[in-house]
């Protein structure tokens, strides 16, 4: 294939350029020059849809874009914000440089992902999940050697890339501090998004002074488990998101977390200074106030930055059936208990179906705010109602055009809305609020529910006609307890985390009921691995006390296998009174262990084979 005249690949990165740039060049070696030659900007209307889908990110980034944009303007640079696919959503800064940048398609509506523009700061930062500067001839495309670009990822509180912040200027004006500045701004945007969470927040620093690293933030759920973290927190705790999320905060930080100004310590004893911030409850909206449109937290167009769990022996046949059905124009309905992987399967379906080049729009019907449902789903014309955005909105259904619409928790959709949705699905057209025009719709439809929709129909809580419209191909995702290969599956999953399970632990885990299915199982396994980082296989005695017990274990009845609660630490002959229940047995074992260890909680926990934080929790 001939290289188009405007696209000369440069001779390669400078010899002193870092390994990452060489690696990026190696990734780009086989790129199709024809693809590279055609930046293929999104039409304005489609770009607006992408911006709409990212309005939360754009809103959070606004103060940083403004501050950095002013600097960039003065320095004849531009600031760019790209989404998690590398598509540039927004630009600020110097007009004269914007014009130059446009000549090489560095402009909103163009994707700078590596496979489309070769080695470049946005694409390479996106690929590596790390900030990077790509200067002059380090760019894969010769035409881009006029640029010096600095890009940093913006991470969500759970480590997914939400977007990329970039500052670009002419190659003959490189300044060393710029990358650190962009990285700092990107972290500021991430903190802004994290700070909007309704969860409690632990705000801390390593050491006593401001010189000890950044402003670390942890989000804590009601059980004081870590639900989110910023990059500074990872640094302060010497951890990564994978190891932190879902673990009890007490596993990482010692100190009374329930107070506001607490003396805290990292587990190696290094002091932390911090405080717990409890966000104020959202004030109730006064009845008379018009409903103000706001970003729909219930919908996402975001590609999963974390890899999806690969289809396995159980989900692969379901996936095949679903893809065949969707490609044949049928609606797919996924049913299964919570955490059985309905959303994961739906993303695989999208990725394998003929709709894969279009968006994946997931709508959580249970979380759609009732007063916004119609406008969020169907869109509206400018000025359609009081409080509407001036420019109107396309609505989520139209955002799914050409892709897959995933209606999660469909059983929770209010009846009135079911009627409208049915009409839209039957007619394959939507009429935005305030408009007299109908817009044709074309997407693949996948719905999911953890509820028995047939029973809801029988109770009159779900429209029968909508039910039949959604379930051309109904598929049931089995709960974990129905997996014949559960012990082997758990063993393999734990090995993938780098650990080993002894046979008794494997079997105790396989006997557990797992009401939270994959979500619960993986949370327990990750926690276990944190508590037992070494190579020694974990024994059943080290499992959390509530694992491995049949849900209806009779008090005093012999347990179905070894496990900590099955072997309460009491002297022979001092068995607790029969009929005291599982909790009482556990309580008794804890009291005995504490007594034997003169109240030393750490030693008692070791004796019971559970983690100290678990014992603290049980003592509350
Ligand atoms: N086959 C699998 N192997 C490993 N992990 C999985 C698998 N399927 C799902 N998971 C993990 O389990 C968790 C729950 O998955 P998912 O959100 O798809 O379930 P769901 O059925 O949609 O849950 P809910 O009904 O509560 O929304 C996710 O963290 C996902 O990564």
From TrEMBL:
PROSITE patterns: SIGMA54_INTERACT_1 (PS00675), SIGMA54_INTERACT_4 (PS50045). InterPro entries: AAA+_ATPase, GAF, GAF-like_dom_sf, Homeodomain-like_sf, HTH_Fis, P-loop_NTPase, Sigma_54_int, Sigma_54_int_dom_ATP-bd_1. Residues 263-309, 547-581 are annotated as: Disordered. Pfam families: GAF, HTH_8, Sigma54_activat. Residues 550-566 have a biased composition (Low complexity). Residues 308-530 form the Sigma-54 factor interaction domain. Residues 280-296 have a biased composition (Pro residues). This is Sigma-54-dependent Fis family transcriptional regulator. It comes from Castellaniella ginsengisoli.
């Amino acid at each position: 294939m001939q290289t188009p005249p405007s696209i000369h690949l440069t001779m390669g990165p400078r010899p002193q350029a870092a390994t990452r740039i060489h690696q990026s060049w190696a990734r780009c070696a086989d790129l199709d020059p024809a693809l590279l030659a055609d930046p293929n900007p999104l039409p304005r209307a489609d770009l607006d849809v992408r911006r709409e889908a990212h309005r939360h990110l754009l809103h959070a980034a606004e103060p940083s874009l403004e501050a950095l944009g002013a600097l960039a303007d003065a320095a004849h640079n531009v600031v760019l914000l790209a989404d998690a696919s590398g598509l540039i959503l927004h630009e600020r800064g110097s007009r004269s440089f914007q014009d130059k940048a446009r000549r090489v398609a560095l402009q909103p509506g163009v994707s700078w992902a590596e496979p489309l523009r070769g080695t470049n700061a946005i694409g390479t930062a996106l690929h590596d999940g790390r900030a990077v500067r790509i200067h002059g001839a380090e760019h894969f495309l010769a035409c881009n050697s006029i640029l010096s670009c600095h890009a940093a990822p913006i991470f969500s509180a759970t480590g997914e890339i939400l977007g990329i912040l970039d500052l670009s200027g002419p190659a003959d004006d490189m300044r060393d501090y710029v990358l650190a500045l962009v990285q700092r701004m990107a972290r500021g945007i991430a903190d802004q998004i994290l700070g909007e969470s309704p969860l409690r927040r632990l705000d801390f620093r390593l050491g006593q002074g401001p010189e000890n690293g950044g402003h670390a933030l942890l989000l804590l759920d009601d059980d004081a488990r870590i639900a989110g973290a910023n990059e500074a927190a990872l640094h302060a705790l010497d951890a990564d998101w994978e190891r932190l999320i879902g673990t009890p905060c007490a596993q990482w930080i010692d100190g009374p977390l329930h107070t506001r100004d607490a003396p805290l310590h990292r587990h190696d004893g290094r002091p932390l200074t911090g405080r717990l911030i409890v966000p104020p409850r959202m004030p109730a909206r006064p009845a008379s106030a018009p409903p103000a449109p706001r970003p729909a937290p219930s919908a996402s167009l975001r590609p999963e930055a974390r890899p999806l769990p690969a289809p396995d022996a159980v989900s692969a046949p379901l996936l095949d059936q679903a893809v065949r059905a969707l490609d044949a124009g049928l609606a797919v309905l996924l049913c299964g208990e919570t955490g059985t992987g309905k959303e994961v399967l739906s993303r695989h379906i999208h990725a394998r179906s003929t709709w894969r080049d279009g968006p994946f729009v997931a709508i959580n019907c249970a979380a759609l705010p009732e007063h916004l449902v119609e406008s969020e789903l169907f869109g509206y014309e400018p000025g359609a109602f009081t409080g509407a955005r001036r420019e109107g909105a396309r609505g989520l259904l139209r955002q799914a055009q050409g892709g897959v619409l995933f209606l999660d928790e469909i059983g929770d959709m209010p009846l009135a809305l079911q009627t409208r949705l049915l009409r839209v699905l039957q007619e394959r057209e939507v009429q935005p609020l305030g408009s007299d025009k109908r817009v044709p719709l074309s997407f693949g439809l996948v719905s999911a529910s953890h509820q028995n929709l047939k029973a809801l129909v029988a109770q009159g809580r779900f429209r029968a006609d909508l039910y039949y419209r959604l379930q051309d191909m109904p598929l049931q995702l089995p709960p974990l307890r129905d997996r014949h290969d559960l012990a082997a599956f758990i063993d393999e999953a734990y090995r993938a985390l780098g650990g080993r399970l002894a046979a008794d632990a494997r079997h105790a885990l396989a006997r557990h009921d797992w009401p939270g299915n994959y979500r619960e199982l993986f949370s327990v396994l990750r926690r276990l691995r944190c508590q037992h980082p070494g190579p020694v296989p974990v024994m059943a005695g080290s499992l959390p006390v509530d694992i491995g017990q049949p849900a209806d274990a009779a008090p005093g009845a012999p347990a179905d296998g070894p496990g900590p609660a099955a072997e309460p630490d009491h002297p022979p002959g001092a068995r607790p009174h029969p009929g005291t229940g599982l909790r009482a047995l556990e309580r008794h074992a804890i009291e005995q262990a504490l007594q034997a260890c003169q109240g030393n909680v750490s030693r008692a926990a070791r004796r019971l084979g559970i983690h100290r934080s678990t014992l603290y929790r049980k003592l509350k």
